[in-house]
Amino acid sequence: MPPYRNFPAPERYRVQTGEGRSRRASAPSASSTHRTISYARRPWTAVAACLALASVFMAFVPDPAIAFPPVLVPERGAYVGSSVGPRVGETGQEAIRRVERAIGRRFAIDHRFYRWDQVLPTRHERASYRAGKLPFLNWKAMRVDGSIVPWSEIAGGYHDDWIVEQAQRFRRFDAPAYLTFHHEPENDADFGTPGEFASAFRHVVEIFREQRVRTVAFAWTMMSWTFNERSDREPMDWYPGDGYVDIVGVDAYNWFPLRPEAAWSTFHDIIAPAMGFAASRGKPVFVVEFGAMEDPDDLDRKANWFREIVETSKGWPNLKGLIYFDKIKNGWPWNVDSSSKALDGYTDMVHAKWLSVMPRVL
Fold first, then answer.
1. Cβ(264)–Cβ(270) under 8 Å?
2. How far apart are CA 259 and CA 279, in angstroms?
3. Distance (Å, rounded) from C-alpha 91 to C-alpha 223?
4. 142 and 115 in contact (C-beta within 8 Å)?
5. Helix pair 267-281, 301-314: axis angle to 10 deg
6. How far is CA 266 from the centre of its chain?
7. What b/e readout covers 205-240, taking b as 16+ CB neighbours within 10 angstroms?
């Protein structure tokens, strides 16, 4: 068993394979924060360039200090999940079942987004877990009424009572789950500085650990563009530290054609810089959100974009989860059934043997 999955999980937390249709934040140690690297500002770009060749010969060996239920990261292959947007009259559970019927299989992960003052986990997560899916929760530092909870306040201990309550509820839930504190922080400058975000992330993790929550893997989720050297961003500015991050999460979108400046991008090219970063930190990767839209001049293009993901995912041993953003948002049609051809391509992808790994959670 790989060293990063050394948590003594209950016997029911296993992985099965298949195929075919059908509180103050303490100062982190030097080893868990920024490290001065003299040979390059972005050493992971070199890592990304050689991963495709090296993956044939290498095994992924992540940080042995990380402990969470082994079912959360498959040993071989990658989980497929979805964040499905309900349509008129649907509940969240009805929405995900609609897509599962269309593709002829059950998802491994059910991904949902929540605000700071929502009680977690919800009934939705309980239902998903009973249905054999692993819950993935995004917990943003914004209240339901739209008001901001500054990262500095979270890091400074002003909201500890609430975080303790949430942690205790996760402990009582007693089921394996993924948790992201405030995904895409680089897109939310109003909440604070990168350093304040990293401190807030660490503080949340520390409280969960103090409350003896042992069933949660913490995902640090950033936009794919942030890892691209052309973005002029430094991901390490937001990085909480190796000792606080269980999974590197990346949101990866092919913005063609609805962004005028966007060219058609392969899934490989979108996530390659993030894959290099994660490999340099010894972390598994989950593509927490990804999506593509139709090319009006080539109605096979979205379908083939999905199909190409299978071989791409095989080339990266630390890519362990693919969670599609199956919604129409702000007029952007990310939905998998934007055409019958797109749905066929998506269905082919999710039935590939490499992506047919399923958790056995009950």
1. no
2. 30
3. 28
4. yes
5. 20
6. 19
7. bbbbeebebbbbbbbbbbbbbbbbeeeebebbebbb
Can you give the three-state secondary structure of 186-245, one letter per residue?
Answer: HHCHHHCCHHHHHHHHHHHHHHHHHCCCCCEEEEEEEEHHHHCHHHCCCHHHCCCCCCCC
Alpha-carbon distance of 362 to 121, in angstroms, equals 17
The pTM is what? 0.86
In whole angstroms, give the CA distance from residue 106 to residue 80.
9
CA dihedral 333, 339, 345, 347 (to 10 degrees): 90
Distance CA 36, CA 44 (A): 13
For the stretch 111-156, pLDDT in tens is 999 999 999 999 999 999 999 999 999 999 999 999 999 999 999 9
What does the block give as tokens for 192?
A: 């604070």
8 A C-beta contact, residue 111 and residue 54: no
Nearest to 20 by CA among 361, 362, 360, 355: 355
**pLDDT tens profile 175-206:** 999 999 999 999 999 999 999 999 999 999 99
N- to C-terminal Cα separation, the chain = 21
Whether the bond into 70 is cis, omega within 30 of 0 = no
Half-sphere exposure of 232 (CA within 13 A, CB side): 0
